[in-house]
Amino acid sequence: MGEFIENNLDIFYWLTIVMLAVASVIIVAFSILQMINNKTAAKKTLITAGGLAVILLLSYYVFASDEILLSYKKYNINSTTSNWVGMGIWSFYLLSIIAVGSIIVSEISHKISK
Length: 114
Prior knowledge:
- This protein is mostly helical and 114 residues long.
- The protein is 83% helix and 0% strand.
- It is built from 4 helices and no strands.
- The chain has helices at 2-7, 9-37, 39-63, 79-113.
- Helix 2 (9-37) crosses helix 3 (39-63) and helix 3 (39-63) crosses helix 4.
- The model has no long low-confidence stretch (mean pLDDT 90).
C-alpha cells in the first residue's frame, strides 16, 4: 500500500487541489446566494469583511516593517517577504486584541444587565 501511495503522490496532490477548489467555489456560491436572499445578513457580512480588510491594510501599510536583519539573509528573505510576515503578525495581534476585548465587554455588559 505504501508503494502505491508513493508512486501516485502527484495524483493525490492534484486530487486534493481539485477537491479544495470545488469546495471553495460551492462555499462562495452559497454565501452569495444567502446574501442575496437575506439583505440584513448581507449588510453585516459586508461590514465584517470591510473591517477585516481595514485591519489587514492597516497592518501592512502602517505597522509592518520591511527591515531585513543580517540573520534573515541565510533564508533568502527580501523586504517584501519581511513586510508580508510583519503584516501577518500584526494582524494576528490586532484581531486577538479585538476578540479578547469583545469577550470582556460582552461579559461585563451581560453582568450589568442582570
